[in-house]
Specification:
This protein has 671 residues and is mainly α. The chain has 26 helices and four strands. It has a four-stranded antiparallel β-sheet.
Length: 671
């Protein structure tokens, strides 16, 4: 066996995922590279049609995600832990926040921190407003695009993955989120197709971000004099360095490389932000931050549901910003969600949602206020110094920093932050892609991580050189439409899983075991292990329940109280009725009830008595239609005692004045 065969044999790649994914990834790359203009035109027509005609799908999907997570936070399910009930968080709070933030949108803040507010500020659709109102709107829309809605998209995927992985012990892959719907079929072709979609989406999202981001990094290095121009070979060198460090970081594991780089970068980003805050219009920034949050909260629902249907002049802006952002967040959610889930073991659902929605959103708001409002303030006070180059997004950040002291130092710091953000996005992406391709296999060989790093770097350079990155980005945005519907199914699966989970862990002992002692434990063991046929339960009711209720009825009659026992055939049941004139009659009955057994239990070799996936049990019922309970273990005397307990409850309720209307039998008889 040669080295190649030995390497492939030790691989954890799943052929059903890796083969179709590589075929699709390479095919799309080749088409986008050889026919960049034609491909871009076709895909742009499709994207435009979707954004114009189906924008409401994106709006409603993201709205559902926000509402779903907010309701879930305050529900009874919020205390459920993503793991065992006694499990502790795997990472410290600061490390956790740093990693999810860096993976989620760290590089985007550097790229759009100045560019987006300035774009909204100079948008022609808002040219009728004065400068102050345009500045306020620029902050509001930037908050909207980078706030709770964006993180709700990531939160749905991350929570679904973390819940079904750590709570249900399923693989950390998107297929696991369909377990309540597909059950064991997630291990077949359907599961492979879901993970193939996730792998391709993740690869294309990281590739386009890497390609476009390198252009900004190249422009920054030219700005500070490190590089001479923005040629392809300079960009190729940048990609090579980024991917080399990313692979080293990824192969060292999440607990080392990824975590430490994320912590380093968040500290560097905060340092740069504080510098701008102190040397910029500090009082204005702090005041506008407070006002901006208030404006965002006030306009929250209006922004959430607004499709600009009544304002055609702003619709192109709406399609090119809000809808594009929603599509972009959705297309990135498999990658970011997988990574967030991977680092969130041990957190409660309430803690997860609260941290994912609130903390990054708050930081984004602060960042966008410091950089965005400083930019619009500088533009207003310095004669349009930034609005004149607003179309040149790659240089806008560095031109902005040039308006402050020691701009060469801050530009270098900004380049460092962008560089590390690239690495943290790439190394976490490498880790996630290998995780998907191997269906969460443990102890994957390190060459697989190297493979993904090389493929990412190589194909991003091919597309960058051929001009095919725009096509790839457009296709990624198009795939967000079907995935938004898939994410709605994630919400449904979560609800199903959480209801079962809550019922399982909160369920107490069966009422049938309430009076147990150790006296008849062997007989009761035999009873537990026996799954009865209908005839056996009918016999129990006829031979044990009926004599007990007859004895109880005789005792009532001795007290001059009218009581009778009735027998019914379908289903077989025995019932005692105690007559009353003014209040409702008291009824206590036991009937034969069919119960479906899990197929897993039927296949369990340690329970050989189970032959079919159904059994029959004796269940109580009452005159007021309350739910009954299983009494299959009750003895003759215990059945009498149970009926008396229910009668005592009935008399206690009847004696309460506030229950008169509910128990008044004369009113009901007159109907």
């Amino acid at each position: 066996m040669n080295n190649i065969q030995r390497t492939l044999k030790n691989s954890t790649f799943k052929p059903g995922i890796i083969v179709p994914s590589l075929i699709f990834i390479i095919s799309v790359t080749l088409v986008s590279s050889f026919f960049p203009i034609q491909t871009a035109l076709i895909l742009d027509v499709i994207k435009t049609w979707i954004f114009v005609n189906l924008n409401w799908v994106y709006v409603w999907s993201v709205t559902i995600f926000v509402i779903f997570l907010l309701v879930l936070t305050f529900s009874k399910y919020g205390t459920i832990r993503l793991g065992d009930d006694d499990e502790k968080p795997e990472h410290s709070f600061f490390s956790w926040i740093s990693m999810l933030f860096a993976a989620g949108m760290g590089i985007g803040l550097m790229y759009f921190g100045v560019a987006e507010p300035m774009s909204h500020y100079t948008e022609k659709a808002f040219s009728g407003l004065d400068e102050v109102q345009r500045s306020r709107n620029a902050q509001l829309y930037t908050f909207f695009h980078w706030g709770i809605h964006a993180w709700a998209v990531y939160g749905i995927v991350g929570l679904s993955l973390a819940y079904f992985t750590f709570r249900f012990k399923l693989p950390l892959s998107l297929r696991s989120c369909f377990y309540p719907i597909l059950k064991n079929r997630i291990n077949g072709p359907a599961g492979d197709a879901i993970d193939t979609f996730a792998l391709c989406s993740t690869f294309f999202g990281i590739t386009t971000t890497l390609g476009f981001g390198v252009v900004q990094l190249n422009a920054g290095l030219v700005e500070v004099g490190v590089l001479k121009d923005t040629g392809f070979w300079y960009q190729a060198g940048i990609v090579l360095i980024i991917m080399l460090i990313s692979v080293i970081s990824a192969t060292s594991g999440v607990n080392k490389g990824v975590k430490y780089l994320s912590q380093l970068n968040i500290i560097a980003a905060i340092t740069l932000m504080v510098f701008i805050l102190i040397l910029g219009p500090t009082v204005f920034l702090l005041g506008s931050f407070s006002e901006g949050i208030g404006n965002y909260l006030t306009q929250f629902f209006t922004l959430t549901f607004n499709t600009h249907a009544y304002d055609e002049a702003t619709q192109p802006w709406f399609f090119n910003w809000t809808i594009l952002y929603w599509a972009w967040w959705i297309s990135w959610s498999p990658y970011v969600g997988l990574f967030i889930a991977r680092i969130s073991r041990g957190r409660t659902i309430r803690e997860f949602i609260g941290a994912v929605l609130i903390i990054p959103t708050f930081f984004n708001f602060l960042w966008m206020t410091v950089f965005g409002n400083s930019a619009t303030w500088l533009d207003r006070t310095r004669g349009g110094v930034l609005s004149s180059i607003v179309e040149n997004t790659d240089k806008l950040l560095f031109e902005f920093l040039g308006q402050f002291p020691i701009s060469s130092v801050t530009s270098i710091l900004a380049i460092f932050i962008i560089f590390i953000f690239f690495i943290t996005s790439a190394d976490s992406g490498i880790f996630v892609m290998d995780n998907i391709a191997s269906n969460n296999a443990k102890n994957s060989p390190k060459w697989q991580l190297i493979f993904w790093g090389v493929l990412l770097g190589l194909l991003s350079l091919v597309l960058l050189n051929a001009g095919g990155l725009q096509s790839l980005q457009t296709m990624t945005l198009i795939t967000a439409l079907p995935f938004s519907l898939i994410m709605c199914m994630f919400c449904y699966s979560l609800i199903v899983g959480l209801r079962i989970d809550y019922g399982y862990y909160k369920k107490g002992y069966s009422p049938a075991t309430t009076n147990w002692s150790g006296e008849f434990w062997k007989e009761r063991l035999d009873h537990i292990l026996s799954y009865k046929k209908e005839d056996a339960v009918n016999s129990f009711i006829a031979e044990t329940v009926r004599p007990a209720l007859d004895e109880l009825a005789n005792a009532f009659q001795e007290k001059q109280i009218v009581a009778s026992v009735s027998i019914y055939e379908h289903p077989f049941a025995v019932e005692i009725t105690i007559k009353h004139k003014v209040i409702e009659d008291f009824k206590y009955g036991v009937k034969t009830h069919s119960k479906v057994i899990s197929e897993f239990l039927v296949d369990e070799i340690n329970l050989p008595g189970i032959k079919k996936n159904s059994t029959f049990i004796p269940v109580t019922y009452f005159g007021d239609n309350r739910p009954g309970y299983n009494i299959e273990y009750f003895s003759h005397r215990e059945i009498i005692a149970d009926a008396l307990k229910q009668y005592e409850r009935f008399i206690e309720l009847s004696s309460d004045v506030k229950n008169e209307m509910f128990l008044d039998n004369t009113l009901k008889d007159s109907q």
